[in-house]
Amino acid sequence: MSSSTTRIRPKNAAIVGLGWWGQHILRQMIGSDIVRIVYAVGSREEHRAHADNFDVAFTTDFSRVLGDVSIDFVILATPHAQHGRQIEAVARAGKHVFCEKPVGLSVGEVSKSLEACRVAGVRFGVGHERRFEPAVEELRRLLVDGSLGTIMHVEASFNHDKLRGIAGDNWRVSAQGEIPLAMTATGIHLTDLFLDLVGPIETVTAFPATCMSNTGYADTLSVHFGFASKATGYLNTVLATPFYSRLAIFGSEGWAEVRDSAHPDEAGASTLTVQSRTGSPSVAKLSSRDSVRANLERFALSIEGKASYPFTEEQILDNIAVMSAVSRSIAAGRSVLIAEVLSRPQK
């Protein structure tokens, strides 16, 4: 996506949070003619060097970017527990908000965040970049045109070892209570895809395991799902094994499977295999795309009304409800209805 096809004034953005993922976002947005990151907020002065590497102004004062009239939107790449109050602060300042996942740790918190944006009249974006991967977009096309028939089952795995050995007092573990790291780090990306491709989830049954961690948190998670459509689903995520990523959907007229060769923060092709009821399977190699950049650029274009943004408030809230249901299922040792978490009757 470039200004050669859609001419807009580049949107000025500030990024808050300069850890691993914040630095990755800065790196991926270099040269964008749609989003220009002009300010970075770090939690301590030592982070200035990261901003200097990308020739971006730096501050440790969050309020400074909120008061800067030249900034159109703020990217939050901060610890999960900070998201709620930061989203509300950005919205009150009249700036659009793009928040990394999970956007909050409870349905109540995220409901308030969405309401704050609604009242302020600002747009809300979320860092689920996997929707923008070429193979996922092609899979979505197959579902929309009915090539796979009635969808009966979906399953996915998203495994890597980038967080192997993370300390138990790291914010990714300690700030989220009973929600397993395997859910907030990777599983939540898969449930976002499930909600997008298959539809609302009604039931969740979670099975965590602590296999390699010496700090007690679950590094392995399996979850079974029941969908409103009566389809079933399954996800598995392991945080202590080499990269492996797979998404498969099974329908009455065929199935399709996506396998990725590299983590989303690296370049690598994906393979899409489609098997219909007759004939041999078709296999296509799809080149990688910078999905992080695609997500942020689409968000910026949506601010201008130049493109639609493919996340609904209901999907964003439902994904947090699914995450919360995973936590409840683990604590109670039983299946949990999403309606219990959302406090709304089943349809």
UniProtKB/TrEMBL annotation:
GO terms for molecular function: nucleotide binding. It comes from the Bacteria. Residues 137-256 form the GFO/IDH/MocA-like oxidoreductase domain. InterPro entries: Gfo/Idh/MocA-like_OxRdtase_N (IPR000683), Gfo/Idh/MocA_Oxidoreductases (IPR051450), GFO_IDH_MocA-like_dom (IPR055170), NAD(P)-bd_dom_sf (IPR036291). SUPFAM superfamilies: Glyceraldehyde-3-phosphate dehydrogenase-like, C-terminal domain, NAD(P)-binding Rossmann-fold domains. Coiled coil: none annotated. Residues 12-128 form the Gfo/Idh/MocA-like oxidoreductase N-terminal domain. This is Predicted dehydrogenase. It comes from Bradyrhizobium erythrophlei. The lineage of its organism: Bacteria, Pseudomonadati, Pseudomonadota, Alphaproteobacteria, Hyphomicrobiales.
